[in-house]
Amino acid sequence: MTSKKSLATSLVSFSTGLLLTLSAAGGATASPAKAQDPVQPQIASTTLTTSTAADYWTPERMQAAVPGDVLAAKAVARQVHVPWQVSKGNGVAGLTEQGSFTKIAGTSRKGKTAPLHKDEAPVDHIGKVFFTLGGANYVCSGNSVSAANKSTVSTAGHCLNQGPGAFATNFVFVPAYKDGAAPLGKWPAKALYAPKEWSSDGNIRYDTGFAVVAEVDGKKLADVAGATGVVFNQPRGLTYKAFGYPAAAPFTGKTLVSCYGKAGNDALNPQFETQGIPCDMTGGSSGGPWFVSDGTDSPLGFQNSVNSYGYGSRSTAMYSPYWGSVIQQVYDRAAAAK
After folding, report:
1. What is the CATH number of the domain that holds 167?
2. pTM of the full predicted structure?
3. 152 near 298, Cβ under 8 Å?
4. What's the chain's average pLDDT?
5. CA 28, CA 255: separation in Å to the nearest integer?
6. Does position 284 have pLDDT exceeding 50, yes or no?
7. In angstroms, rounded to a whole number, what is the distance separating the alpha carbons of residues 296 and 260?
8. Between residues 153 and 12, the one the model is more confident about
9. CA-to-CA distance for 143 and 173, rounded, in angstroms?
């Protein structure tokens, strides 16, 4: 299990060697990264009222919140090359199977198999995000990331914007969440940021967003929960450890879990340019962080993406958007916001 302190401590010790590790991975086992749309991106954002968001999220509302992955399902369904249909509550992306599965290594999960996740102790900077979209309350996952403002949270784009459509309201980040408790407080967002490729087009390639949260009791998020570094434009095919709070069956959303493995391309829809790792996390895990691993089942590394989507309730893979220059510039804007 990962302790609350081990991830932050490992990140500090690992940061010096990260670039050397990534360079070695690129030369030995990973194909070179392709630049992601080098043109200047358009960034969408909104400001939010923070005075009522924390009080809005009572324990009852948090428990009743719908896993937000159904929002990603709509974007996937518009762009897929295989006949999936949107169905609320089924799988990481809310998709039901209409044909055979093609997963990482060409496998699918049939019947009872060994789990592809591991239970984790709470980690201070990883938590849940709760938000309202279209009159409904949703839940996803998120992570406190290093930023000049010490107040930036990463999550999936569909966890803060309909893609395409409106931004969320009542957005809060609850770090170190466990069993309905908010031991480090509820941090209301004062601004939300997403690539316009997501907010205007719902393009799953850009399914990432960042929230800037307000101070709580005069303190900044990173000073209370800590924060992890981020990296962009890295080689494909690295090894990752991903975290999230899956809430759809068979999970309850009460505790943190992780998945680990070497990333591979989405063979069903290569036009997404996404990567996946072996994972059976379900709805609610969207937006949880992907950390570059040192090649072992450990959380070493900087964050390099987020949980985005899977294919059905029996999915054996979790896919993430490639963090290239577009997403980097969205992060830069959020991290510098006052």
Report:
1. 2.40.10.120
2. 0.82
3. no
4. 81
5. 36
6. yes
7. 9
8. 153
9. 9
Q: What is the mean pLDDT of the segment spanning 273-288? A: 95
Of 204, 256, 247, the residue nearest 67 (C-alpha): 247
Q: What does the pLDDT read at residue 296?
A: 66
**Residue 35 structural domain:** 1-338
What's the burial of 28, exposed, middle or buried (CB within 10 Å: 0-12/13-18/19+)? exposed
Copy the structure tokens of residue 112: 């009872």
What's the number of domains the chain is made of? 1
* 143 closest CA partner among 132, 167, 159: 159
59 phi-psi bin (left φ>0, alpha ψ -120 to 50, beta other): alpha
pLDDT at 324 over 90: yes
Query: Strands across the sheet with 275-278, in order?
Result: 264-265, 275-278, 317-320
